[in-house]
Structure formats: C-alpha cells, structure tokens
Design goal:
The chain has 511 residues and is α+β, with helices and mostly antiparallel strands. It is built from 15 helices and 17 strands. The structure holds a DNA duplex (18 and 18 nucleotides).
Length: 511
DNA sequence: TCTGGGGTCCTTAACCGT
DNA sequence: TCTGACGGTTAAGGACCC
C-alpha cells in the first residue's frame, strides 16, 4: 500500500533576502545578505547572487564580507517577513485545514485531507497553481516538493530549488534516496554525519544496508530507529496543524564579552523581563526557569529551577534567574546570556494570584529555613569574588545593542548606551540608522538606509512598486528624516485582488 | 574580528517513591 | 527491614533545524 504523493512541502526561496529584494528594487539581481551586522553577527539568509560568492546561512557576517565585499548587508525585519509569511500561509490554508508551518518560510500541507488533490496529477496542478498564486500575492518565488510523506516531500522541495516543483513518484523513493548523502536526511547534522562517516557510511543506501540494530548501537535508540526508517523512505508522521509551544526564551550575544558581575546580573534581569513579556504575550505561564550562559570560550552552561507551580510573574522569574546565576562562575568573561521558561501552562487569571501567593510563601519559608539552619550547608558559595578587582578596569563602553533584530528601529537606542557605572541619567540620545531601516523623508518620500557613519546617513529613495531609486545623504539628526514602517510588497493597486479573495491571478511570468 | 536567536527532541544521571 | 526493579521527574548537555 503506497501513499499518493499528496503531502506538499513549501519552501520560499532565500526568503528574507528575497523579501528585501522585492521591497528594494535597486537590490534585484544583486548579492543581498540578511543577518546580524555586529562584530559577532551571522548570516541568516543570502540571496542566490550572494551564494555564488560562497556566502551561506550560519556563516559569520565578517567572513561573508570578505567573500562578498560589495554585497548589500541588511538587518532582518521580522515584522515584514511575518506579514508576508501570513499571506503565504493563508494560501496554504485555503488548500487544506492540515497545514503545519515549520518556520516563517516553510510548511507542510496535507492536500488529500483538504480535498485539494488525490493523486499525482492533481497534486501537480494544485502545486503549480499555488506557486503562481504566491507569486501574484507576494512577488516571491517558492519551491514545492510533493511526495507520499513529509520527509520525502522535504527532500523533493530541496531538489526543486530555486523556483521549481519536484514530485517523487511512489515506488521510486528508495532508488532515488540511495545515492544521496546522509546529510540530506532531516536530523543528520554535522555531528551525526561525521559519526557515520567514520563508520564508512556516507550515502543513504549505505545507511539502509547497515541495518537498524547497527544504527541504534551507533546513534542511540530513537535516532537509530528513525534513521533506519528514513533510509528506507518510510515516514508515517502525520501533518499536524496546531502544535503548542513548549518553551519561551530570549538571549543576547554581546559585542564584547562581559566581565563585570554587576553588569551581568543586570543583563540577566533585563532578559528575564523580556522573557516574561513574551511569555505573557503568548498567553502562557511556565514552571521551569532556565538560565543560559555562554562563556568567552564558547562553552555553554545551562542551569534550571522548577517551581511548585507555573508563573508569569516577572519578579518570580527575575529572582529565579538571579539565583541560578549565583551558581555560575563567570570569570574569564561571558559572550551570551539567555533566560527561558519551559513547562508551559495555559495562563489564567486565578492561577496567577494563587501562584504569586504560593510562591511568596514558599520563598518566605525557604528563607526562614535557611536562617534557622544558618551556617550549615554549602561552603562553596563564592560570595567573595571581590578579589578579582572588578573596580580596576572600568569595562570600556563596549555595549551590545546591535539594534535587536525584531524591535522597531529607534525603540532600542537606550539599551547599550552605558559606560559601566552609568547612573541611569540618560546621555543625549543619538539616533541609530542600521542598514536596511525603512525611513521617510519629508521631501523625498519613502526610502531605506543604505549605510551610516560619521554623522551621516545614506538613504535610497525607492519602494516596492517603484523603479530603482536615487541615493542621497543626510546628517544623522536631519529633522526631515524619520524611521517608518515597511510598505507592503505588492501594492494596493496591483495586489488588492490577490490579497482579498484567494483567486489566482493570471500572470505566470514562469521563469 | 569565528561561530545569532528561537526553538525541538533526545540522552544520561541522579533522585524519589512504590 | 533490606534490596532490587521500575517509572516518573528533574537537571544538564548536545544535536539539530530554520
């Protein structure tokens, strides 16, 4: 019994970079790199033009700049990507109720469940129409894989890129997979790949020949079984529409390692606040607080603490995070800090009151107990620390705040600011203009920041529907220049029909 | 100028209770 | 009462994904 190829995997091509190219006409056909622009940034997405220089995602931005010095380097604008993603996902949901988003730019769709296709021919027609639809609604190209299972559909869309469609006919999958690298299988990353390679296994065919027992022995129970099944092309995981979040976390990598313990504590408090903000926004509370510390040498520690019940009280999370930090040695410096909450529960108002009370009571009890037991237990607490001469070298400026990814431009500003002991009396605020920021000029209209430095900011005046625009330079404090919100990729005029009803627009522009 | 940020899942070990 | 098997929970770390 073999399944019809009605599982669809959709993958938007070089998504973030393509959105930026659509939004900024002068970048079309050019190398565009979206990612962190700070000294420790990495590439999130590179346009196909940039990939030709060897630039790829997860590569340090500094290295990308060496390979592709003339590329356009932009910070990610998640609000815009999410808006575009919503348009795409809406198209998918019009095909079937069973849509499983994997990220902003990827999703599985069970076409059969939605009655959108029951066989290979139908699936092809539906998929081509979908691609045309997405292009009409967003101006972007998508690649689609069709197969009888999720795993194969994903392999197919990978093979279809860019801007293509690939259907794996039932019955051909084993032969198709056999010569492929083990790394093409989802779940086989650098570590497992290397592990297998040392055992002489580099292709999927060799994986299948190794046998289940051998793979389990090499990679562990769960992984081994899954690997063996995938190697045979077997995968019966269903497409699941809603999956609830299991954890919420925030983390920051600092441009310069943090040494000052006071500063570190302060950052942890900030992160805890941000984390709770997210937690609440998602309508959850959580029971386990996790602190993450990446040290100067990239070694990563996590410490966690499970409360008696779920909370979404910032004070509770802050205190837990602070306690966890006290158990960690940060001498040598810290490059990243993170705070997370897991063990999520649905948020309800009553719970919160009860929870806050219970928590307060528990803390009071714990304190009382500790006091009673005074002197006893742990001698290990290094509350000395002072010896390190923290005061000596005043943590030179440094600051992080590379304009935190999703935040609306400008909202940030205050964040880093600090000379170590800044007594919170804000310094005169300087506007920041990270590359890629949307702006509007009183006289010249909408544009985007191409670059800034030494008191100047360079803006290119163009927008999604326009021809490539002109560049002008202004003083950073030019009052006529202000940050603005992203404009829709497909303008009201030519896009509204595609936006409102799900009707497929005619132009294919099939390339 | 080495190596982001937000997740998921798995493994191992310790510990607790039955 | 001691011992062992076993399951559940917690904690820590790692691999992987986009």
């Amino acid at each position: 019994m073999r399944a019809a190829p009605t599982i669809l995997h959709l993958d938007m091509d070089a998504f973030y970079a393509s959105v930026e190219q659509a939004a900024k006409p002068s970048l079309r056909g050019k190398a565009v790199i979206v990612g962190g622009l700070g000294p420790r940034g990495v590439v999130a997405t590179a346009s196909y033009e940039a990939r030709r220089f060897g630039v790829h995602s997860a590569m340090p931005t500094a290295q990308a700049r060496r390979l592709c010095p003339n590329g356009a380097y932009l910070i990610p604008r998640f609000t815009l990507y999410r808006a575009v993603s919503d348009l795409v996902m809406a198209r998918l949901r019009a095909l079937s109720p069973l849509v499983e988003p994997l990220s902003l730019d990827e999703a599985f769709v069970d076409l059969e469940a939605g009655g959108a296709a029951f066989d290979a021919a139908g699936a092809r027609v539906t998929a081509e129409r979908l691609r045309a639809d997405i292009r009409a609604a967003t101006g972007l190209s998508a690649s689609v894989g069709l197969a009888g299972s999720k795993m194969l559909a994903k392999v197919a869309s990978e093979g279809a890129k860019p801007d293509g469609l690939l259907l794996i006919e039932p019955g051909t999958e084993r032969d198709l997979l056999a010569p492929m690298s083990v790394r093409t299988l989802p779940g086989v990353g650098p570590a497992t790949g290397e592990h297998l390679r040392r055992a002489g296994i580099t292709t999927v065919g060799e994986l299948a020949d190794a046998g289940e027992d051998e793979l389990v022995r090499m990679t562990g129970r769960a992984h081994g079984v899954a690997l063996y099944r995938m190697a045979l092309g077997l995968d019966d995981r269903p497409v699941v529409a809603e999956r609830d979040a299991k954890s919420v976390s925030v983390e920051d990598t600092f441009d310069v390692d943090l040494h000052d313990r006071v500063r570190i504590r302060g950052e942890v408090q900030r992160l805890a606040e941000r984390c709770v903000g997210r937690l609440r926004a998602s309508g959850h509370s959580g029971r386990t607080i996790v602190l993450k510390v990446r040290r100067y040498d990239f070694s990563t520690l996590t410490r966690s603490e499970t409360l008696r019940g779920p909370t979404d009280d910032p004070a509770v999370v802050r205190e837990a995070a602070a306690r966890l930090l006290e158990g960690i040695d940060t001498t040598g410096g810290v490059r990243l800090l993170g705070v997370g909450v897991s063990g999520l529960a649905d948020y309800t108002q009553e719970d919160l009151f009860a929870q806050a009370e219970a928590e307060a009571a528990a803390r009071a009890a714990a304190r009382a107990e500790a006091e009673a037991a005074a002197g006893g237990r742990d001698s290990g607490v290094p509350d000395s620390a002072a010896g390190a001469g923290a005061g000596a070298r005043g943590e030179d400026g440094g600051d992080g705040a590379d304009g935190g990814a999703g935040a609306p431009v400008g909202a940030q500003a205050a964040a880093g600011a600090g000379v170590a002991d800044a007594p919170v009396g804000d310094p005169p605020q300087e506007r920041r203009w990270p590359a890629g920021t949307d702006v509007r000029h009183e006289e010249y209209g909408p544009g985007w920041v191409q670059g800034s430095g030494v008191g100047r900011v360079t803006v290119r005046f163009e927008q999604p529907g326009s021809p490539p625009g002109r560049v002008r330079t202004f003083r950073m404090d030019d009052p006529d220049l202000e940050p603005s919100v992203p404009l829709p990729l497909v303008g009201e005029r030519d896009g509204e029909h595609a936006e409102r009803d799900g009707e497929h627009a005619k132009e294919g522009t099939a390339g």
